[in-house]
Write a structure and sequence with these properties.
The complex is a heterotrimer. Chain A is mainly β. Chain A has one helix spanning about 60-65; strands at about 5, 10-15, 20-25, 30, 40-45, 65-70, 80-85, 95. Chain A has 1 helix and 8 strands. Chain A has a 4-stranded antiparallel beta sheet with strand order 1-2-3-4, with no helix packed on it. Chain A has a 3-stranded antiparallel beta sheet with strand order 5-6-7. The longest helix of chain A is centred in the middle third of the chain and has 5 residues, at about 60-65. Chain A is elongated. The mean pLDDT of chain A is about 95. By secondary structure, chain B is an alpha+beta fold. Chain B folds into 3 domains: about 40-260, no CATH class; about 405-590, no CATH class; about 595-650, no CATH class. In chain B, the strands form 4 sheets. Chain B has a 7-stranded antiparallel beta sheet. A 5-stranded antiparallel beta sheet of chain B has the order 14-15-20-17-18, covered by helices on one side. Chain B has a 4-stranded mixed beta sheet with strand order 8-9-10-11, covered by helices on one side. The model of chain B has no long low-confidence stretch (mean pLDDT about 95). The longest helix of chain C is centred in the N-terminal third of the chain and has 31 residues, at about 210-240. Classes of the chains: A mainly beta, B alpha+beta, C alpha+beta. Strand 5 of chain A pairs antiparallel with strand 21 (about 650) of chain B.
């Protein structure tokens, strides 16, 4: 029986009285363990070309369909995860461990 | 297989997925008896020998082949398989080819044991991706090893041949809408019988190629590898007996399965996914497509599916064989790193539930010849992301074995053709970017130009070797800096950039170049994605004049001329004596929030000149003073401010689901 | 009385060997002194003088030739104590040595590690990025200048490296310099002018081979070790001169020859790793005396097992080496090494329930459990002690009593985990270790197309004579020689003393078949000329110089493969060259199976080599005149129960003192012969015989075709 799953230095899944919960290292209770925690994050969506030098291409129209998403803890601002996605595509539910 | 009942995974209308028990013609007798007991000492001696036999098989191919792609880039694989085609040992070469050897061998057992029959001294050749190769160029040879009248085991290899025909030099047919526009596809046929190569079959294969001599030499290298391995296995059986050697093979697979099982025990049940986007199903297509891999872990088994992948289209498909191989590669590195290439035990605990008719598992007649440079790296990258997220959730210390994604275009491939400086036609495949990079892991930075983890023995050719073979000058080959690309709490190793001009010819055609429209890589659990792979070209430059005057241009911005906008899968580009072009293999993915990166690690990169002061601030929130030192207090303030800015710029509670 | 002395200052001990004018051999050892090597050397010489029965001053003063083998370069590299070195590289290619072709993370490592990225990393660079300077210049693949050398840039770079960064050595490695060295030569002149005290070397001199990465590595390592190596050679030469040595000190080279210290300081890379070569050369000298054309020379020590081959009386030559994950090309006698020796650790593989031996080693610290230095994991040496092959009392002549009980406990604990008894476990450890040793030999022979059954195994080093009875037997070789018997642990010092002056010259130049004879003859002629001139500079010249010529051939396009073919002497005609091509094709088929080569594929010759040898005279080794009786009672020490791993049974085995064995003695197994620094195990059905030169031959009775060293004693005696 696991008490918790460490996902990264900031995010973990913990057993609590209220069931399994995604929790940030700052103590913020993020979301129910059976949901996509990204839905409970503060999200910044920006053009992929803005990530840094070299990310812009000549295919401007195609690149405009894509974005870079950063998922932050809404309380402390730690970046919990990121994804490059097509604008309008749902957040990928990519991390669903069970206790 | 949990797909619809009427679907046949037969290697003809759909990729071949072998049943648990093969349907083999009764005329073929398999050697299955095992010694009940093998003492631990004999076991170790035989296991060690088998592993060395496989390494010798690989080094024979590497030494005797003449295509740089095989001998230097290690775009090949070899294996020893059990009598029923379970892969036992893989070599430290292109990992995703390993499983394709198993599929092809099993298909042969089911479909060739009655006619033409499987006999001692046979070698089967297959280029059919629906049977088991990742694309037609990765041609497989597989040969039964008999002991007496019984089939004891198989030795097998898959080698990338430089040109096996079809409409385009190099046989990567980007324009293909279906397999009939691809190079020919040969289901398993007998290249050799009774230990002798059949001239008719050899010609049938070689006749398709633009590079008959080169492919012929490589084919003979592959045959030599088989005969070396076969001979040594027979010696081993002679000495220890078939039943003892067989017992060791089975026990080694069992041990591999147990070791893998122990790792699985450290991972919670759950489901993990990765999604990678790609573009252009054929040149000029503005569409965007999805490659998705999902892993469900339940108890002692991993279930892999590709739900979410786009329907198959144009030339950006791979078959079932590609999907399986591409998934097993990162699983081997992250969860079977201690098995020295024993992958057969691993695959027993991995079940596939593919959605057919998708770009990651296409049905006949989907075109697949371009998969080698497009789909395969992309699906490996997709699978890497899913596996890495799963492994990161494992109990320590296993979670540290997670490795972030390598680039979806990891070869930085550049394929070109024309007449070389000796006046001969050639097809070149640039391997310079094989210097690779190891991406970040939880707890460890990656390794700068540290190679490609899923092609463990890969190596970049020397610039001098390239210049001897091709009519080019490499103006520079330089490591990237460690800026935003691949940043994170732990950063990726850096990739590299290379720039060329023509030399000794006045015309070349660039067939394939990688200029990504957008970044395809994904960061791991808070890390930045890797960079965008790019290929840039300037025409009408003064590079030649600068060289003659004594300056070697060190960047596209240092020469005059006009940059030609290149697009992903653009039409072949014509290179002339005024051209200068660059290929960049970007840094791969980082792990964790860059604002959590250790200041000492940032300082080392600054001192080494790998990180600019500007990027230190922008990417890592590190404030650098005039002496070049990170100011600890001001960095803490800066990072707090960055976190506040993030939240100010973010929206909460917007659901896309 | 005059002496011919060889000293090998390699590992834990500094070994010395001497032959006097009458051909008698003497050996001695002393502990190596790390801080000042000369001390250990003089200690060894003092011990040697005692053996010879003269004062050390007299020994040195009456020495006709003094050859020194050393691992100083390797130590500098491994301990990272080399010179602060700067690198001048072609503009755009300064990163080459840092990128390491992407394979530096795993180069030279065990293949199993290839699957485990997290525990592999690149080595710390020898030249950090801030000491690399890129220079505008460019040659192409034909050696034609594409961009001229920027002379001012070179001068600025050198000043910056020397004045701002205090480099002590500079490496110059430009692209294609082996085709056209002009730019490197110009840059070298600038370095000499601007910084005359800084050591500098050029890649076209150190390693004139294609492949800028490997060539740069060779040049950088060379510059890195040069200042300290040169100082070391000079100090040794001065001290010996002060002690009365009247001849130039000769330094052992990886070519298998020696060079005067004054010449050796020019390119110290050629002395790097010459330690194992000494043993191979010692084996070579001995094999010629004994008439063994094919020899597998095996040196098993505490941590490693080194194998070299002598084929048809010639040691096999390699052209690539990996040190510390850095790969470079240099002609050297081929010695291949794996981590397999007395200190190799035995561990359980939890998944298969089997025992693994090595590659991890207990090293010198803590060492085997029985050494009482804190080791807790059992090693091969512990297994030797448990079985009784090694005596716990007489190890190192009794100076280091071993803790047998602790070894038994450690091995029993290991055996418990897999359900084996203590002796079974110990025997198993040896069987696995011996199988690994045999596998390396197999790879070195069979893979090259040689049948081990045509070979004699020579076994030396601390653990070789003890284990050869098993690993040699495993291969079905003709027999085993423990060269020099009691002197087997100082064989490389002996090898140094027997070495000749050797210089190798090579040039990469591509010829497609049918080769242009004029160009080929001209190239060979120039290379020969160069070799003779260099020998002349060392005051060895004229008719004494023997020239051998070779070429490297491959099928067109095979960059990673080549076969070395001998080229006939003199001016080449069409038929000569057709013969060489035929030899190539048939050797290729022999190696890789009939039809492996494609007849339509062209053959190319891409490198030519010239080897110049001046044979140094020395006395013929004296033979023991008296043929003793076969029974070796005079050397009998008693008996001990030994559990023999090949038989899996405990047998009463006889013990002998090796120093009291004489020519003609025959010892039938099971037996152990104790030597000062090692022991020889004689298995059941094996016979050890002593010959007139002090060699011990281990013969396997079951091999009917075997020709033991002393063979039919008369034949070897009369021809010896």
């Amino acid at each position: 029986m696991r008490e918790q799953v460490i996902i990264n230095e900031n995010l973990s899944l913990r057993r609590t009285d209220a069931g399994a919960r995604f929790v940030c290292a700052c103590g913020h209770d993020l979301a129910d363990g059976s949901t996509n925690f990204k839905e409970a994050c503060a999200v910044r969506e920006s053009p992929t070309a803005d990530i840094g030098e070299g990310y812009a291409s000549f295919a401007v129209e195609m690149a405009a369909q894509m974005c870079f998403r950063e998922f932050f803890c809404p309380d402390c601002g730690a970046r919990l995860t990121t994804e490059v996605a097509r604008v309008g595509d749902p957040y990928l539910w990519d991390t669903a461990p069970r206790l | 297989m949990e797909t619809a009942q009427n679907v046949v995974w037969d290697g003809i209308v759909r990729g071949y997925a072998p049943p648990d028990v093969l349907d083999i013609d009764p005329s073929l007798t398999l050697q299955t008896a095992e010694a009940a007991e093998v003492d631990p000492i004999t076991y170790e001696v035989i296991r060690n020998s088998l592993q060395n036999i496989n390494l010798e098989h690989g080094s024979t191919i590497q030494k005797l082949s003449i295509s740089p792609i095989t001998m230097i880039v290690r775009d090949f694989q070899c294996a020893i398989l059990t009598e029923v085609g379970d892969v036992m040992f893989l070599g430290p070469y292109l990992l995703y080819l390993g499983n394709t050897l198993g599929l092809t061998t099993k298909w042969i057992l089911e479909n060739r044991s009655a006619s033409p029959g499987i006999e001692d001294g046979d070698v089967f050749l297959s280029t059919d991706p629906y049977v088991g190769s990742s694309h037609q160029q990765d041609t497989g040879l597989t040969s039964p090893v008999f002991w007496g009248s019984e089939l004891f085991c198989w030795v097998s290899n898959s080698v990338h041949y430089s040109d096996i025909g079809g409409p385009v030099p190099g046989s990567f047919c980007l324009m293909s809408q279906d397999i009939w526009q691809d190079p020919p596809c040969f289901p398993p046929m007998k290249l050799a019988e009774g230990g002798k190569v059949r001239a008719d079959m050899e010609d049938l294969f070689l006749r398709q190629s633009r590079l008959r001599d080169t492919v012929g030499m490589d084919l003979h290298a592959a045959l030599a590898g088989l005969s070396v391995a076969r001979g040594r296995i027979l010696k081993l059986i002679e000495r220890y007996g078939a039943e003892t050697v067989k017992a060791v093979m089975k026990r080694t697979l069992d041990a591999g399965e147990r070791a893998f099982q122990e790792k699985l025990d450290m991972i919670p049940d759950g489901r993990w996914s990765e999604r990678v986007y790609t573009e252009a199903s054929v040149p000029g297509d503005p569409g965007i497509y999805v490659s998705q891999i999902n892993i469900t872990k339940e108890g002692d088994t991993l279930y892999i599916d590709n739900e979410g992948s786009s329907p198959q289209v144009g030339s950006i498909n791979n078959t079932y064989a590609g999907l399986v191989g591409a998934t097993l590669a990162p699983l081997t590195i992250m969860l079977a790193y201690d098995l020295g290439g024993v992958s057969g035990g691993v695959s027993r605990r991995v079940k596939f539930r593919p959605v057919p008719g998708t770009i990651t598992c296409c049905d006949y007649p989907g075109a697949v010849s371009a998969a080698g440079v497009f789909n395969m790296p992309m699906v490996v990258a997709t699978a890497t992301g899913a596996v890495a997220k799963m492994v990161a959730c494992a109990d320590p210390p296993l979670r540290e074995k997670a490795i972030a994604m390598a680039d979806a275009q990891a070869y930085g491939g550049w394929i070109f053709s024309g007449l070389n400086q000796y006046g001969q036609f050639f097809v070149g495949m640039s391997a310079g970017m094989a210097a690779g990079a190891i991406p970040a892991s939880p707890g460890r930075d990656g390794v700068d130009t540290g190679g490609l983890f899923w092609v463990p023995g890969m190596e970049a050719a020397n610039v001098e070797e390239n210049e001897l073979a091709w009519p080019v000058l490499t103006l520079y080959r330089r490591e990237n800096s460690a800026g935003a690309a691949g940043a994170g709490m732990y950063r990726s190793g850096v990739g590299a950039e290379e720039a060329w001009v023509l030399h000794g010819t006045d015309h070349l055609d660039s067939q394939i170049y990688m200029n990504e429209s957008f970044v395809k890589n994904q960061g791991l659990l808070g890390g930045n994605p890797g960079g965008r792979a790019f290929h840039r070209l300037k025409q009408q430059t003064d590079a030649a004049a600068q060289l003659a005057a004594g300056t070697v241009p060190q960047g596209l911005d240092q020469v005059s001329g006009d940059e030609v906008p290149l697009f992903y899968k653009g039409m072949p580009a014509v290179l002339d004596p005024t051209s200068m072009w660059t290929t960049n293999l970007p840094n791969f993915a980082g792990y964790g929030d860059p604002l959590d990166r250790d200041i000492a690690a940032i300082q080392i990169d600054l001192t080494d000149g790998k990180l600019s002061t500007k990027d230190a601030l922008k990417v890592y929130g590190a404030v650098v003073n005039e002496a070049g030192q990170v100011d600890v207090d001001r960095t803490a303030e800066q990072r707090a401010m960055c976190r506040r800015e993030r939240l100010a710029a973010a929206t909460v509670g917007v659901s896309h689901a | 009385m005059g002496y011919y002395i060889g000293v090998d200052g390699g590992g834990t001990f500094t070994d010395a060997a001497a032959m006097d004018d009458e051909g008698r051999l003497f050996y001695a050892k002393a502990a190596t002194t790390r801080d000042d090597f000369a001390m250990g050397m003089f200690d060894a010489l003092a011990a040697l003088a005692e053996e010879c029965g003269v004062e050390v001053s007299e020994l040195i003063a009456s020495t006709n030739r003094f050859s020194l083998g050393t691992t100083v370069g390797t130590n500098l590299l491994v301990e990272r104590l080399g010179a602060r070195t700067g690198l001048l590289a072609t503009a755009g290619h300064g990163d080459s040595i840092l990128m390491m072709r992407g394979s530096g993370r795993t180069a030279g490592l065990e293949p199993e590690l290839f699957f485990h990225p997290q525990i592999t990393d690149k080595p710390e660079p020898l030249v950090p990025r801030f000491l690399i300077r890129e220079i505008d210049e460019r040659m192409d693949c034909l050696g034609q200048e594409v961009a001229p050398l920027n002379v001012e840039q070179v001068e600025r770079a050198v000043r910056s490296l020397v004045e701002e960064h205090q480099v002590e050595a500079i490496a110059i490695a430009f692209l294609w310099s082996f085709k056209n060295p002009a730019h490197e030569q110009q840059a070298l002149e600038i370095v000499r002018r601007v910084a005359p005290d800084v050591y500098a070397s050029c890649s076209h001199q150190v390693s004139p081979r294609m492949g800028e990465y490997e060539r740069t590595v060779a040049t950088v390592i060379n510059s890195y070790v040069a200042p300290a190596s040169a100082a070391y050679f000079r100090r040794a030469a001065d001290k010996l001169h002060d002690s009365g040595l009247d001849h130039p000190l000769l330094i052992m080279q990886v070519s298998g020859g020696v060079l005067p210290a004054a010449k050796a300081v020019e390119v110290p890379l050629t002395a790097l790793g010459s330690g194992p070569v000494g043993g191979l050369i010692g084996s070579l000298a001995m094999s010629r005396q004994l008439g063994h054309a094919n020899v597998i020379a095996t040196d098993m020590g505490g941590t490693s097992f080194e194998v070299g081959l002598i084929i048809n009386g010639e040691p096999l030559v390699a052209d690539e080496n990996v040190v510390d994950q850095r790969r470079y090309k240099l002609l050297q006698l081929q010695t291949t090494s794996i981590a397999c020796g007395g200190g190799s650790l035995a561990r359980i593989d939890p998944h298969s329930g089997s025992i693994r031996v090595g590659p991890e080693s207990a090293g010198a610290q803590p060492g085997p459990v029985c050494y009482r230095r804190g080791g807790t994991e059992p090693t091969v040496t512990d297994a030797d002690v448990v079985l009784g092959l090694l005596s716990s009392e007489s190890f190192l002549g009794g100076r280091m009593p071993l803790d047998r009980d602790a070894a038994v406990r450690a091995i029993a604990a290991l055996g418990d985990q897999v359900g084996l008894g203590v002796e079974e476990t110990a025997a198993g450890i040896l069987r696995i270790n011996n199988a690994r040793a045999a596998e390396l030999i197999r790879q070195q022979t069979v893979v090259r197309g040689y049948d081990p059954r045509d070979f004699m195994v020579y076994a030396y080093g601390g653990a070789g004579p003890l284990h050869a009875f098993a690993y040699a037997h495993e291969l079905g070789v003709k027999g085993v020689v423990i060269p020099l018997g009691n002197g087997a642990s100082t064989l490389s010092a002996y090898g140094c003393s027997t070495s000749n002056l050797v210089l190798n010259f090579e040039r990469e130049e591509l010829f497609f078949a049918p080769f242009e004879l004029d160009r080929l003859n001209r190239a060979l002629g120039e290379l020969e000329e160069e070799a003779r001139a260099a020998m002349f500079d060392m005051r060895a010249g004229g008719d004494e110089v023997e020239i051998d010529r070779f070429c490297l051939m491959r099928y067109r396009g095979q960059w990673l493969h080549n076969l070395v073919m001998r080229i006939p002497r003199g001016h080449l005609g069409t038929e000569d060259i057709a013969g060489v091509v035929d030899d190539f094709r048939s050797s290729y088929d022999t190696l890789y199976g009939h039809g492996a080569g494609v007849v339509s594929q062209g053959v190319e010759l891409f490198s030519i080599r010239v080897r110049a040898i001046v044979r140094l005279r020395r006395p013929t080794q004296a033979m023991e005149q008296q043929f003793g009786k076969p029974v070796a009672d005079q050397a009998r020490l008693g008996s001990r129960d030994i559990f023999w791993p090949d038989r899996m049974e405990r047998l009463e085995s006889r013990l002998f003192d090796g120093s009291r064995l004489h020519y003609g003695n025959r010892i039938k197994g099971p037996a152990v012969v104790e030597l000062p620094y090692t022991s020889i195990a004689v298995g059941m059905d094996q016979v050890l015989e002593c010959d007139a030169f002090g060699n011990f031959a281990l013969n396997f009775e079951h091999t009917p075709g075997a020709s033991p060293v002393v063979g039919t004693q008369s034949s070897t005696l009369t021809t010896g």
